[in-house]
Amino acid sequence: MTATITPALGARHARILGVGGYRPTRVVPNEEILKHIDSSDEWIRSRSGIVTRHWAGPDETVAEMAVIAGGKAIADAGVAPEDIDGVLVATVSHFKQTPAVATEIAHRVGAGRPAAFDVNAGCAGFTYALNLAKDMVTGGSARHVLVIGAERLSDLTDLEDRSTAFLFGDGAGAVVVGPSDKPAMGPVVWGSEGDKSDVISQTVSWEAYRNGGEGVRFPALRQEGQAVFRWAVFEMAKVAQRALDAAGITAADLDVFIPHQANMRIVDSMVKTLKLPEHVAIARDVETTGNTSAASIPLAMERLLATGQAKSGDLALCIGFGAGLTYAATVVTLP
Amino acid sequence: MAAINDKDAILEGLAEIVNEIAGIPAEEVELDKSFTDDLDVDSLSMVEVVVAAEERFEVKIPDDDVKGLRTVGDAADYILNAQLSTQS
Fold first, then answer.
1. Where is this region: ACP-binding (chain A) (predicted)?
2. Within 13 Å of residue A282, how many CA atoms lie on the same side as its CB?
3. CA A244 – CA A259 distance, rounded (Å)
4. Chain B partners of A224 at a C-beta cutoff of 8 Å?
5. Is A121 helix (H, G, I), strand (E, B) or coil?
6. d(CA A289, CA A167)
7. Which site in A92, A191, B19, B44 is 20 to 30 Å from A121, CA atoms measured?
8. Average pLDDT for A45-74
9. Residue segments in chain B with a per-residue pLDDT below the cut of 70
10. Mean pLDDT over residues A63-82, rounded?
11. Annotated active-site positions of A, please?
12. From A47, which residue of chain B is nearest by alpha-carbon distance?
């Protein structure tokens, strides 16, 4: 007779237990960007809403920023570091692919020997990892998962590209996902559109860079601004609405909207397209943080809570979207 | 089946859209006006104008074609041709 396998037993529900963020020390105003491109402070503000961003110094590595943000999230969650049994790091700007930076971070936050791996889903990386963490907790493969988005996009910025030089920033944001008695994370609405892989991409592959050649420069992020704007505002508004529907709530029930902080114009137009009510607090962290890809949503969440614009227990719609193209949206209860 | 608009009707519709999105008085939206140089419609607002025009006139204006729409007249011609080609 064949023995029966004992299945994993997960928590009934999952929730975000705590959040933490790290912003590099150096604040870079638009004036500094203007040394490299023919533009103006007014133009940058009107096209992006960005006034300042943080750029990391040599010691503020992806791992270093992630460890600090992760440590804060663990403390905020009120769990012991050794209780973390899963560490997921979403990043596109850690330049050493092997080993996964998540393992070093797990070790340095004092988590012991948890499952640890990196997630690459562009600017949707955090919301992808967040939903993986939820499934790990409810699926029984982990009890407390540290989810981090950490980026040094200044390393992938072409300072001479006047359409993107001002956009990107550095930083790390983290949350801890753990068990919950009540539902506190709605179903994820996610997907990818690989037919649009050239809309946001790296200028040259590492292989092409290694091989060198005429005009081959260090890789940078590039995007087709109008195509990204149309997709982000109009297609992602539909995805955001589907996430509300999946969670069984309406925009009127929502307290907070935390879209990926790509550009203030995208945030404003999404709010308009979604017809969000006046009472909904809108994350506008891009103004002083720039676009930090996978780090933007947890950083914005941390700031909304720290400044009192949002409070624990609020219902927040988070939507990440970016290179791939990839997207993931989910409604969560704020920690 | 969608109604085919004449150029005057398309201009009127575009004027309402530009007014709604960029706050430009509708009467200033004329066929020879450049969206960016005369009407202060930047590249991102242009995308909003295009999407609103797609809905109103029931046509498709792909991203690659948006760059060719320099003036209001360019957009009106594009929409007129798109409407005619879907009807034929």
1. 261-265
2. 20
3. 13
4. 63
5. coil
6. 9
7. B44
8. 97
9. 1-4, 87-88
10. 98
11. 123, 260, 291
12. B44
